[in-house]
Amino acid sequence: MYQYIVPFRQFVLKIASRCDLSCDHCYVYEHADQGWRGQPMVMSDETVTRVADRIAEHATEHRLNTVLVVMHGGEPLLAGLSRLERISRELHRALAGVSQLDLRIHTNGVLLTEKLCEMFRAENIKVGVSLDGDKGANDRHRRYADGRSSYEEATRAVTLLRDRHPEIYAGLLCTVDIRNDPVAVYEALLALAPPRIDFLLPHGTWDQPPPRPDGDETAYADWLITIHDRWVSAGKPVAIRLFDSITRAADGRGSRTESLGLASSDLVVIETDGSYEQADSLKIAYDGAPATDLDVFHHSLDEVALHPGMTARQGDVTTLAGECQRCPLVVSCGGGLYAHRYRTGSGFENPSVYCADLLRLIPHVQRATGRVNHALPASTLDLLAGASGGPAEITRLLAPQLSLTRLMVSTANRAAGGSSSWALLTRLDREHRDAVDRIFEHPYVRTWAARWAGQTRVPPGPTDFGHLAAIVAAVALRVGEPAKVTVPVRGGMVYLPSIGRMRVGGGEVAHIEIGAGSFAVGVDGRWRDEGSADWEPVRSLGAGGIQVLVDDVDPYRDCYGTPVRDRLSQSEFGDWQKVLALAWRLLLREHPDQAAAMGAGLRVITPLAGEGERVSSARQAYGALALAESSDPETLAMLMVGEFRYAQLGAVLDMFDLAGGDARVEVSLRDAYVGLAVVDFLGADDAGSMLRQVRATTRRLSAGSLPDIGRRFVAGMSAAAAARLSGLEPRGTARAH
User: Fold this and answer.
1) Global model pTM greater than 0.85
2) Tell me: the pLDDT tens digits for 427-446?
3) How large is the angle between the packed helices 663-678 and 708-726, nearest 10 degrees?
4) Which of 335, 369, 403 is the endpoint of a domain?
5) Is there a domain that residue 306 lies in?
6) Do the Cβ atoms of 710 and 658 come closer than 8 Å?
C-alpha cells in the first residue's frame, strides 16, 4: 500500500557527543534523556561515509534541490579540524550532482581558531554561535565545569567571525532567561553585528515547567515583547528568527522554526554512532524519548520518515490537543514546540507549557506588522452560528482560508523537492502580493496542494510535481512579469490556474514565455499564443452585481465525489448563464441577505456532469460551488444557499473544533446547519418541521460532550431556530425539495 513520505531536508549530525562547557540549561546533558553516555565521543570515518551516502540516497529518491546539514554536539569543534574537514568533503562527494549542500556548524565558540575559520571558509561552512547576551547574562548558565566564565572566549570567537570571516558568520543563538535584562541582552548581541539572532525559550515540560520567579504566566512573552518593540522602533536592524517566524506562520508561508506553525517536521538527528533520532529537544521529556531504534547501517531515511514518532509531527491540526484545535491562533502557533507539550500520562497531547506566553506574544507581533490575527470575534461566530452571517462575517473567513492555502502550497513545494519556480514565486509575492493572493484564492490551487498535505484520498502523482510551475506562471501572467517557465503537459493540455488551458497535443513538458500582458506556449518547437484556436480561457459569468468564474477546465476541479463536465460549448455556456441569472435575480429579490453573503464569498462555479437538482461543495475548494444543469431557478437558488452555508461552516471548522473530534457529531451539525440556512425558502409547514428538527438536533448535541466553543455555536443555532419558529407565519404552500 502506498504511504506518502514527508522527506527530510534538515539533518543534524552529532559529530561529537561530549562538551567542554557545563551549561546547566543544556537539554543534552541536564535533562531526562542521558543517551549521550553510551555514545562514541566522535563520529567515526565509517559512520560519516554511511551518513553521507544515506542523505544522498534520500535526496535522490525525493529529488531534493537543497539539503541542510548542521554539525552539532555536544561541542562539534571537539572533533578537530581534520575530522570536520573530512565530514564536509564526504558530504560534498555524496551529494555532488544530486543536491546543493547547505552545510553549517553550531558551536559555543570557545575552541574557534583562525585555522578553523579558514577551513570553514574553504569548505563553505557557515558558523553559528551560542551566546546568551552580555557577560552577566551569559555567565548565568554558560560556564566551565569548574565555574569559570566562557564569555571572553565566546565573544572572541564571534569577533573573529565578524571582523575577519563575515562570509561564514551565520548568527547568534540566545536562550532566554527572564532574570536577565532583555534590553541589555539584545543590545549586547546586536553589538556583535550578527546576520541573524535566534531567541529560544528554555526547554521545559508540564512535568518540569520553566522557571517563573514571580509566578507570571506570560513572563517569557513580556520579556520577548520588550525586545520586539525595541527592535521594531530601531527599524529591525537584524533578522530575528522568532519574530520573522510568527509573521510567516500567520501568513501560511511556513515558519522558519519548528517551534511555531503547522508545517510538517522535516528534521532528523543522527547520533555519533549512526543511530537516527527524532528532534533532540525531545531529550527533555523522558529517557529514550527521541529514539527510533533505527540506524544508518541498516535502515534508509525513508524508513525513519515512516516511524510513528516522525509521522506524528506532520502538520495535521487534528493531531494537536483539543484546546489547540479550538484556538484561533492555531495556524500561527501550531501547538508550540513538540517537546514543550509533554506531560506524564497524556504524552504530547497537550498545549505547550508556554501556551499563555504564545497567546500573548503572537498577536502582539502580528499587530505590529499589520498581519491578520486569525481569530473571530464572538459576535461574528454567533452570527455565523445562525446561518445569517453577512458580507462582513464571510469576509472574516477569507484570510484564514488564504493562510491555509499558503501553508499548503509551501508544504507542497517542500514535499515535491522544491520547484525551480519557487524563487520567482517568492519574489512575486514580495512585489505583487495581491496578485499572488488572487491566484491562491482560486479554489483549485488548494485542491492541488491538499494532495501533498495528505488531505485527499488521491496521493500526488508524477504529473502533479510540476503544477506549482503552472501556478507561478499564472501569477506572472496576472502581473505582466516577463518570465520563462517550464510546466507539465497533462492529457495534451497545458493549464494555467484560474486563467485557462491550451491544447498542445503531445509532449511531456511545455515552455511558457510570458511578456507584458501576453504569453506563448511552446511544445516541440511549435508555439501557440492566447489568440490561438487551441486556447480555452476560463470564462466569467455576471448577474445582478455578482461576478464569478465558470471553471470547466482546471485539472483539480474533480473534487466533489461526482463527475464534473468538461468544457461547455458556447451555446451550453449561454444556457447556464440564463438559468444562473434567473436564480440570482430571485435571490436578490426574495433573499437579499443571503445573496449579499454569497456575493462576498463565492468565487467559482464548476459544472457537474448530468442533469438534476444538484449542488456540491468541497472542504478543500473553498469559494467554489459545483452545479448540475438545472431548469428550475428557484430550487437552484435554494440549493446554492444551502451548499454555500455548508462551505462556510467548513471554514469555521478549519479554525475551531466545534465537534470535539467526533465525526458523527460533525455530520449532525452540518445537516442541521444546512436546514437552518434554507428554511426561508420553504412554506410554513415545511419550515416549521425543519426548524423543529434543527432544535431537536441541537438539544441532542448540547447534551453530549462538546467543547466549549462547540457548545456556544450549537446554542447559537438553537437560538436562531427558536427565533424563526416563534415568528413563523404562513408563506404559502410547502415546496418539495
Assistant:
1) no
2) 888 889 889 999 999 999 99
3) 30
4) 369
5) yes
6) yes
